[in-house]
Structure prediction request, 506 residues.
Amino acid sequence: MEGPEWSQRGIEQRAGRYPLRVEAPILRAIELLVPGISSVTRYVRYYALYAALGAHAAEHDLDGAASLRLLRRSEVVLAGVSRLYDDPYGRPGMAHAVDEVRPSLDGDVLHVGAAAELDGDQAYSSRRSGSWETYLGPSAVLGTAVNEDGAPCPGRHVCPPEVAALFAPLWRESGADVLDGTRLEALAPLAMQAPERPEAGWMRGLFTATRDGRHDPEEWGTDDRRRRATFRMLGRAAGLHGGDAAHGWEECVRSAVAFGNEVETDPVLRRVDNVLGWRGLLLRNYSVGAWRRLWAALVRSIGSQDGEADRSRDELRAWLADPMPATSLRACLGELPATMAGGHPAPAERQITQDTDRRDPLLNVRLLLAGGRRAGELSGEARTTFLGAQHDILNPLWVARLIDDFADRPMRDLSVRLVDDMLAQARRVALAKTRPDANGRMKVFSRVHERGGRYYKTGDEGDGDIGTRLHQTGDIAEQLGLLEYRAEDETASLTPLGAELLEVGE
Prediction:
């Protein structure tokens, strides 16, 4: 459209992340409980790669440009080797960027130079530092490497000779613009699923805070001890509930820690630091997931992504109110599964979500109500972590107070209040994030906007659960030989080595 300059749009609309900001308590707790692991750092070999690269760069006095060049080329070669020699369905998976290097593979010939160029047509990554950008924070916490001008440098833990030797052929071959099949075959020991893992011993010690198979708390920092506690908890949970591993490592921990009495009766779990913090985190995540799914479903109800089908506030209220049962909130609470049994959390959330569409609005309202109940039932560290900062909007204490206010009113009334609270909170979050861009125009980070009493959207919201990093921790423990997953019967168990290093044997 052409017109006078003053008619240009003055506000730029961008998609916002965490539109209700209900995730913050979970994310804060995870940072404390799982230091050195993130939701995208699930490969032990990459921790070792960057440690070895940092040591190599220091030994050969490489400048920043040379280190970055070697970094990008080595990631390309690793991805090419993985594509040629790894099973797509094997554990622990395939290297980062295997799909992105596919255009640079001609049969078994890899065009390294073309894929590694930052601005090339076949660039494997548009990020200057490639996959290192996702490992630099966890590597610094673990102590294996630190970031300097976008490339890894040596960390506080010296890269051992066997790890340096593993990657030495990679540094040599990464200098070539083209690698043929013979040269790539010689690098097969670097594949993610290669049978030998020379880096495992060193990494086992760092992840489990042990030296020569022994843990001395005085020799390790706070982050190391917390990380070890998480590995101990996961190892014991797998030993007690390995049959739940078919549904993920997190399910093993839920069975052992979130529900039941094992955190108090099991001789190992009751001595694991912060295990009750994990209980609070896992239980709170049910409420966080419910809010995320409710909000995403509300946004989907507005209509097409181009904003053609706007909705009034009353229409959005009706979206949630109509599927509610024609009963009072008190009656609905009476139909919820028990949240406590014998003084310990009962698996109410599992019962609510069993064999049911997790996007069902009523299911998610019931999860919020269960969380509101737990606000008055948990105690100590579990309650502190469960509630987070008590001034947070939409937290379980907020829901508990709504229960008090609406107990004898229809469920429809509660649903109207929930819609109003979500819309108000989304607006508060969007306003708090609003910033001017370089041209002085305001940027609003939100997918939902209101104009003249009508709501429209610029896109849909995600409704996935917030990861607790237990999945990544379990995968790393498996790569380190601490846990074993058996695909034939979909169960997991603690290995003898894991039981020894983590001190979780009975």
